[in-house]
Structure prediction request, 125 residues.
Amino acid sequence: MLLELVTGQRAIDFSRIEEEDDVLLLDHVKKLQQESKLEDIVDCNLARNYDIDQVEIMVQIALLCTQSTPEVVRMLEEEGLAERWEVWRNFEKMRRLENERLQRRFNWGVHSINLQEDIELSGGR
Prediction:
């Protein structure tokens, strides 16, 4: 919900599929954040009437809330945003590298769709 407030966009938006692969707002924001394009994240209706540092903090908190075991309240009260943000970024980097490694190892891509169809068509063994 916080990402929707910052961006002025819906959580799922099929119009983004024409421009990129990210239909989910979460994936869209992650990509822009990783590319350091925070200005592209902010709702254009704000007409640059915002503090980019506050936007960065809100995006960080929103992305941290998407962890499988969110600890945002503890983070805000005890550990601090910077420490939790660094842990999350390292986790995301490792996850992304692992996904890329698996894609190279199994040569996933266009061919994986055909492979899946071949498996489904061949039936049980």
About this structure: Residues 1-66 form one domain.
